[in-house]
Amino acid sequence: MVNIVCSYKLLVRSFASAVKRPQLRQMGSELLAECAAAYTARSLTVADIQRNEFGQPYSIGSLSQRLFLSLSHSGNYLVAMASCYPCGVDIERHKARPYAELWQDIRHPLEPNSPASLAEFYQWWTRKEAAWKVFACQEPSHMQDLQVVGEPRHFYKELTIIDLSAPQGYALSIALQQEDKQEHE
Fold first, then answer.
1. pLDDT, tens only, 117-147
2. In terms of pTM, does the model score above 0.70?
3. Which of 43, 96, 108, 169 fits a disulfide with 147 by CB distance 3.0 to 4.6 angstroms?
4. Which part of the chain is the 4'-phosphopantetheinyl transferase domain (predicted)?
């Protein structure tokens, strides 16, 4: 039996649907700073949060080598994540779409052929997005190379993928790249 120790903080916030992109970016930075401060028990502000050339958030200062951040938004929700491990978070609102066809475009050969429902598709989709964010959306270069459904021992780079409870009509997943996974019998 494998016991994986996960260390992270997650904050979820709802917001008014009329929020424009610049305001949403500011709200995201504020939520990231709040999440990072709660995780580290240190005072952090929006000024401590930056984004790299790929848009991935990170902290500046003394915590920068030990603090990893991720942010996602969909519909009326923002989700921020802080961890001592490279991490990714994704939330998606369920929208009617040809999910079986979309799944074929991103499906890894070892993953199931088709999701059984729209909700299952979005759960799998959030797993892919969260995992991709661990690597700043740069690795792998194609979603088809990123296995996140099926046997965990086959997951891309042995990522830890966790499906979390989400607001009604949403899917939410996180991914962590833990180098110090511990096995216990």
1. 999 999 999 999 999 999 988 889 899 999 9
2. yes
3. 108
4. 86-151
Q: Which two tokens stand for residue 98?
A: 């040809």
Sign of the alpha-carbon dihedral angle for 85, 177, 74, 163: negative
Asked if 159 and 108 touch (Cβ cutoff 8 Å), the reply is no
Q: pLDDT tens for residues 148-168?
A: 999 888 899 989 999 999 999
Q: Answer whether the bond into residue 112 is a cis peptide, omega within 30°.
A: no
